[in-house]
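Backbones bend. Our protein:
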Amino acid sequence: MPWKFRQFSKAFSIISVPILNYFCPLTRAFDDRTMLVAHRLMPGQRIAIHNDHLTGGETHRLTIQLNRGLRDEDGGFFMLFNSSDPKDIHRIIRPVTGSGIGFEIGRNSNHAVSRLHGGERYTLVYSFFAQAYARWNSGSG
């Protein structure tokens, strides 16, 4: 099996809400829904600044990098912002293979991925839903 698919399968099988809830009491705030998306960026591509906030949508995100051999000059950095202004950068994070970034989604969770200049950038994006949103959406809260 090619490296990319082995890594994808391995990462997918170890991350699930029931497992997270069992090992970490803080995650018991999540319902059983989990979404997984795989991103692939090629040279010249980027992801512009955004916040992913939708009322009733996912509330937390975990990204896992599956890159191999990306150098700083290749770009593809994960960027966090203090506001929706692209010049208001809070932190820049290298896309190191095997690393993960977790964050809460909200109106102020502005983030982006810088333009990729070389190589390919692979990311697994897990989305989780807080219990409060599940109750609110179902009308039982």
Remarks:
- The two ends are 46 Å apart (CA to CA).
- The longest helix spans residues 3-14.
- The helical segments are 3-14, 17-23, 131-138.
- The chain has a mean pLDDT of 78.
